[in-house]
Amino acid sequence: MHDRLAPLYPQHLATVRERADRALALGGFDHLLVAAGTPPGRFLDDQDYPFAASPHFRHWLPLADAPGSWIAYTPGAKPKLVFVQPRDYWHVVPEAPRGYWVEHFDIVVVRSAAEAAAQLPGGRRAVIAPACPPIDGVEANNPRAVLDCLHWHRSYKTPYELELMREANRIGARAHRAAEAAFRAGESEFGIHLAYLAAARQVDAELPYASIVGLNEHGAVLHYTHFDRAPPAEHRAFLIDAGASCAGYASDITRTYAAAGHAGFQALVDSVDAAQRGFAAKVRAGQSYPELHVHAHHVLAGVLREHGFIRMSAESAVESGVTAAFFPHGLGHPIGLQVHDVAGFQQSERGGSIPRPAGHPYLRMTRTLEPGMVVTIEPGLYFIDMLLEELRAKPQAADVDWAKVDAFRGYGGIRIEDDVACTDGAPENLTRDAFAAA
Ligand code: GLY
Ligand code: MN
Ligand code: MN
C-alpha cells in the first residue's frame, strides 16, 4: 500500500496547494490555516467524544490522530505542520509523524494547543476550523469564498485519493464477506457487527459512519443503528450498510441478502441488483445525476410491476409518487473525505446551489458527472409501514397488490450500494472490483 501511495502523493499535494492558492486569491487572504480540531467533551464529565480530524486537514496529509495540530500554508512556501505532542502519561500520545509525506512539510512539534497557536502566521488568514469546541488562541473564520472554492475542487479526486478509496473499499468488502458469513451462521445483529469490525480491523469510532446491520423487518429502517443482542427466531433477510476508512477516506457499501429458502425475496434482491448495475454503468462524464435518479425511479417502478406489487404503468407510478413510497431516498451522493461529501449541490467554485428536482427532497447530488468525481449508487426498495399507510390512503392504492406487499413486510427492504468513480471512459466501480478481489 505504502509503495503505491508514495509515488502518487507529491502530485496530490501539488494539486491541493494549487487549489489552496486559488481559494486564497478568491477570498483575499494570504495564509490558509487548517485545524485538525479537538474532540468535544461530554457534558459535566472528564471524558471526550472520539476524535475525528477535520476533513480539510485530512485532505493535506494522511494523519487522523492529531488533535490540536495545524497545517499552515502560505502560497509559494513549503506547507508547515504544527504537530501537537503533549507531555502526557495518561493517554497514548500521537506518534511523531513519519512516512512518505513528511519530507513535504516543515514540521514543528509543540506540546500544547496554545504553543501551536503561537506557531501560526498572523495577518490576512483564512482559518478553517470547527467553531465548537473553540481552539485556544485562534479564532476560526471559515470564509465562505475559500470554503466554496475548496469544496468545489474536492469533487475531483486525485489519483492518490482514488487509491485510498480503492483500499477503503477493499477493507469494506472483506468485512462485508465476514458479515454475510455471520448472518448465514445465524448470528444476532450484534454478533454480525462484531464480525464486521474484526474483519475490517477497525473500531466503531474509526468507521466513516455508524454501521447499519438490520435483520428482517429492521431493513426497513433506513438508518437502523441499533444492534439486537439476540438472534431473531428466524433469519429471513439481512441488510448491511457499512463502510471502512483508509487514511481519512471513506467507503460506503450496502448489500442485502435473502436467507436460504426465501426465493421470492431473493428474486427481488436480484432485480434490484441488476437495476443497480445498470445505474452504476451510467456513471459517465456528462450524465446529469438528478436525471439518473429519476431514471432509477422508472426502472424500479418496472421492478415493482414485474414482481406484482403494483399494476399501474411505470410512468404513472413515478408521477403519482407510488415509487417514492418504496424508494424514499436519493440514488446516492458524492463520497470522499466524508461519506456524504461536500459540494453535491454546488453550481461553481464560487458557490451557488443547484436545486433538487421537484418531488425528490432527499437527493444529495444535483450536479452533472465529470471525470474524477466519485459517487455512490444506492437504489433501494423497502416495505416501510409509515409510508405504506400513506400510500393506502391515496387513490393509487387500488392499483397496489396489498396481499403481496404484506407478504414482504417481514423482509424489511433492499438496498444495494457501490462507490463508483467517473472517468474519461467507462466507470470504475470501486466496490464491485473490491468484492471481486476479496
Ligand atoms: N450509509 C449512509 C448512506 O448510504 O448514505
Ligand atoms: Mn450507505
Ligand atoms: Mn450512501
TrEMBL record:
Pfam families: PepQ_N, Peptidase_M24. Residues 8-152 form the Xaa-Pro dipeptidase N-terminal domain. Mn(2+) 2 binds at residues 241, 252, 417. One of its GO terms (cellular component) is cytosol. Keywords: Dipeptidase, Hydrolase, Manganese, Metal-binding, Metalloprotease, Protease. Mn(2+) 1 binds at residues 252, 333, 378, 417. The keyword Metal-binding applies. The keyword Manganese applies. Its cofactor is Mn(2+). It is an enzyme of class 3 (hydrolase). Binds 2 manganese ions per subunit. One of its GO terms (biological process) is proteolysis. One of its GO terms (molecular function) is phosphoric triester hydrolase activity. Belongs to the peptidase M24B family. Bacterial-type prolidase subfamily. Splits dipeptides with a prolyl residue in the C-terminal position. This is Xaa-Pro dipeptidase. The gene is pepQ.
